[in-house]
Amino acid sequence: MALKRTNVYADDEDLALIKEAATRDGVSEAELIREGIHRIALARRIWDQPFVEDGETFDLGGPLTREAVRDAVTEGFDERESRNRGRAA
């Protein structure tokens, strides 16, 4: 991937958090900033194709409660964080 240099302004508090995270994860601050830029670029992207077409459905095995969704998201987040900590170790 070709990288292009750019300048941004950031709050001192945000920069301190990035510095702490970089030290904790054993990566450079620049790597974390690039990851943040990439994530927001993808989150704000306008896709050419819709994720789900009209009439398309997913069988989730029945109705889902708010708690079931919250538990599934929390479990997925915890698993990802665990993998990330293992990678940085």
Describe this structure in words.
It contains three helices and no strands. The protein has helices at residues 12-25, 29-43, 66-88. The model has no long low-confidence stretch (mean pLDDT 88). α1 (12-25) crosses α2 (29-43). The chain is extended, with a radius of gyration of 18 Å. The protein starts with 11 loop residues before the first helix and ends with a helix. Helices cover 58% and strands 0% of the residues. It is an all-alpha fold and 89 residues long.
- Look at the structure and give the mean pLDDT: 88
How would you sum up the major sheet? none
From the structure provided, what is the oligomeric state, counting identical versus distinct chains? single chain
Q: Which structural class do the helices and strands define?
A: mainly alpha
Rg from C-alpha positions? Answer: 18 Å
H/E series, N to C? HHH
Tally the helices: what do you get?
Answer: 3
- Helix content range: 55-70%
Number of strands: 0
Strand content: under 5%
Please state the overall shape, judged from the principal axes of the Cα atoms.
Answer: extended
- Given as residue ranges, the uncertain stretches (5+ residues, pLDDT < 50) are none
Distance between the termini: 25 Å
Question: Layout of SSEs?
Answer:
Layout: H1 12-25, H2 29-43, H3 66-88
Helix pairs in contact: 1-2
